[in-house]
Amino acid sequence: MKRAVYIILIAFGLISFGFYAGAIYGRKGTEQVVIYDNSVPSVKPSFVRAASLSSEEFSGRDFSPQRFNEVFSRVAQRSIPGVVTIVTEKVIKRKIVNPFFPEFDDDWFWQFFGSPPETEMRGKILGSGVIVSDKGYILTNNHVVEKGEKIHVELVDKRQFEAEVVGKDPLTDLAVLKIDADNLSPIPLGDSDSLKVGEWVLAIGCPLSENLAHTVTAGIVSAKGRSNIINPQHYEYFIQTDAAINPGNSGGALVNLRGELVGINTAIATSGQVAGNIGIGFAIPINLAKKVMKDLIEKGKVVRAWLGVWIQDVNDKIAKSMKLKTREGALVSDVEENSPAEKAGLQVGDVIIEFDNHKVKDSSHLRALVANSEPGSVKEVVVLRSGKEKRLKVKLGELPGSEVLASGGKESRTSKLGLRVSNITPDLADRYGIDIDEKGVVVVGVERGTQAYRVFRLGDVIKRVGNKEIENVKDFKEAIKKVDTDVILFLVKRGDNTFFVTLDNPK
Fold this sequence. Notes:
There is one protein chain. The chain is an alpha+beta fold. The chain has twelve helices and 30 strands. It has three domains: 80-94 and 120-299, Thrombin, subunit H (Beta Barrel), CATH 2.40.10.120; 305-398, PDZ domain (Pdz3 Domain); 411-504, PDZ domain (Pdz3 Domain), CATH 2.30.42. Helices cover 21% and strands 34% of the residues. The strands form six sheets. A seven-stranded antiparallel beta sheet has the order 7-6-3-4-5-9-8. Strands 24, 25, 26, 27, 28, 29 and 30 form a seven-stranded antiparallel beta sheet that branches. Strands 10-11-12-15-14-13 form a six-stranded antiparallel beta barrel. The protein is elongated and about 75 Å long. It starts with a helix and ends with a strand.
């Protein structure tokens, strides 16, 4: 009996030893964790084993806490001399108010006695800028200098210069200044397209006061491609960061950990109570700024490429109504006559999913891609049309003004939608400012409390339902009946704008 027990114990020991030896000598390696990916294709990322280093061993590696500290410090020291403080002076004229005879302040009174007395006040606008050339060119925001009469620039070594405005572009909120100075330290331009969400960045500028010039804050890239932040009509494709940005940081530098300029700090989101940092700031990508800067320096204005389409995002309802598998791309809601798009064969309802080998994320992304192109260049455009991909060649034009910025009277009530539409008559065309030759039906009534009430306005012209072109009320009724999707897609013209809207199909 004892002999059997000994044999079992010895066997168990041998088996345990075998598993242990196999675990030690037979494994291929521990799990690898990326500490930092510098996103340079020619450089392999560094790896460390997850749980194989003691604190002493870790301190000797490239990515020790001390190493991180040195990287941030070195990038800051190299970048700070390339950032300047900008103080813009403006004379503000105000009418003198008479507290004893307020009737004298009435505009009607001064029609007979000349202009009212005024007083002048000299105001200052504080901002930042980035030296981008040893020839003295400085990149900043347009809103920092647009109202200024005198623009003063101060370098990190306390030298001061009066700057001249080389050019301004309100549509991207960028401006280029020039100073006559030597021994400058321009910040090298990076590639904002290669930035990754979660990547470390530093923001450098002059927040709140001249006494706080060259303040450095750190954070990460919180998001990319933010649009409709300030003005939907502008070219916005912002980098979002949680690096602290405050008033006065506008025009300052956003740099990566290679010390490259990847953005121009421009705006912040606030709680509405205090105009200060709450961890949501926005920067103009340097790739968008490069062409603007080059045009302003070489031509004095920005020359933009022109595609000639009205576009909008593809939301979930639009995607369902068009039976699309993706929500990415830009939906063409109108094609301008004699435009490059029309000549290339683009059509209303096309979804542009690729432009010049770039996947199009949304309408703002497409606007930025076209804006960064040169007029006269030929680009390949990939569209989804009736569920199939189609490749087109488009020769881009130059954006006009880029230096600035049927018959019958029958009505139909569609009770399930809450809409009442009519054929376009001379009376309705005159009432709503519609071209009498416009194709479609006009909205003449909308029921309160319905979906349609939140979407349509009186005078809207419905030009298409689904893929069906609408010319009269009969077409409209038939098209509504034939819709077999959960969402109904409408092409609507309102004033000079044409766009798609959706309503749930009540069936």
